[in-house]
Amino acid sequence: MNKLTEQEIEIILKNKINIEKITDGNTHVFYSDGCMGIGVSYEHFGFEPFCIGYEFCIIVNGRRINISGYFHDIFDAVISITEEWNNQISIFENQKSSDEFDVLSYFY
């Protein structure tokens, strides 16, 4: 597991997300590295038609960490995803957890 730059996150978003797999309320994990992953869901966060957006999360050892905010465009989330991914890498490295977990098994 490595820390990622904003440019790397942008490339991951361009190449790994399949927009058709993102459905209302269901999390689609589109990237994983070891026991960490990045997921996205499409959510309604209000009553107006414009109150819809993408919600991202980081999964670490099966634990979901929501990234604050809803994004109308997936690329608006690059900075937030990068910051949270790298923060979780730092926490994980400090804990030196030996209980690695297959991130995809969290959703199946």
Description of the molecule:
This protein starts with 5 loop residues before the first helix and ends in a 13-residue tail after the last helix. The model has no long low-confidence stretch (mean pLDDT 85). It has one domain (6-97). It has 108 residues and is α+β, with helices and mostly antiparallel strands. Strands 1-2-3-4 form a 4-stranded antiparallel beta sheet, with helices on one face. 27% of the residues lie in helices and 26% in strands. Strand 1 (28-33) and strand 2 form a beta hairpin.
- The secondary-structure element order is HEEEEH
The radius of gyration computed from the alpha-carbon positions, rounded to a whole number of angstroms, is: 14 Å
Number of domains: 1
Spatial sequence of strands, sheet with the most strands: 1-2-3-4
What key phrases describe this protein's structure?
108 residues, alpha+beta, four-stranded antiparallel beta sheet, 26% strand
Secondary-structure blueprint:
Elements: H1 6-16, E1 28-33, E2 36-44, E3 52-60, E4 63-66, H2 78-95
Antiparallel strand pairs: 1-2, 2-3, 3-4
Question: Summary?
Answer:
It is built from two helices and four strands; from the N terminus they run αββββα. With 108 residues, the chain is an alpha+beta fold.
